[in-house]
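Quick note —
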Amino acid sequence: MEVFEKEILAWFDHFHAIPEVSWKEFTTTQSIASILDDLGVTYRTFSDVTGVIAEIGEGDEVIAVRAEIDALWQEVDGVWQGNHSCGHDAIISMVLGALLYLKDKPLTKKIRFIFQPAEEKGNGSLAMIERGAIENVSHLFGIHLRPIEELPMGKVSASIHHGAAIFLEGKVLGEDAHGARPHQGKNAIDVIFGIQQFIKSIYLSPFEVYSAKLTKINAGGESLNIIPGSAEFAIDVRAQKNEVLEKLKDKIDTGLTGLSNLYGVDIEWKWSDFTPGAEVSAEAEAIAEEAIRTIVGDEGLALPVITSGSDDFHFYTIKNPNLKASMIGVGADLQPGLHHPKMTFNKSALDVGAQILAETLLRA
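Predicted structure written out below.
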């Protein structure tokens, strides 16, 4: 079999050098389109959003694969810049590599390649769904490098079980008072402490994985003798299962309403950036398992990865419950960790990932 590792590594180097943040992946989109032109592959781009959808093969049924294309905005050596510390440059390269491995094979179904923007914003998948990305799709696969503590080099998992996440942003609207006359005001900091105590006293089944925690508090100004009546806060809420996240959300809604009444203040809040937890298809997972065994042997197959991290890949299955989906996890000795500004990994994992992905799509 012809090996395309050289091309895959060249693509990685190219995309690594042009990191672009969510919804601004203009050069990345153009680069993918140019590569597809060179390969003679048909594709669609869009006038209103970044991203590319390409297809090879024939038939009514469609097998699809998703590659996220955005980078993070973070500080690297004292400079704020785009940075591919989540490995999306690697994912683009592996998915293009899989396309290269499959392009000239006889296919009885179409294979669709979804190069999706804005995964880091948690809603790029919704934009692709609106533009027909999963029309007639029976199986959907993703692929992602995993941190070394999850998967070492040489190990590959047939599924990643991401958790669900949602964020709350709120305001406490009380009354300022002089520091010497606290009885004349309504102290927003007291309310914030009440919120902290409340969310730490939420108990669900100990057999479930979940968390809720304050991640932002802004209250008070430069004058130290003014008791602040207003404050801003944020809560990060996560759970391994979507239904558990919904229970947490309901309890927090009820609790904030109760605290508003208890302290006699207005509390305003809104939920945003919901990312669903994984709904892994046993059938899709089994297809990926056999592909992994074929490429790296039984010894290379790892157990499913369970992580509290989230990924908007799972909106595809939320929006189409009949879709059979799984995301493949690739060990690459990735460290110190995903989203670390100095993240590194063993690049030889890229060709292995591309071959496994190609075999998975072929089997599906």
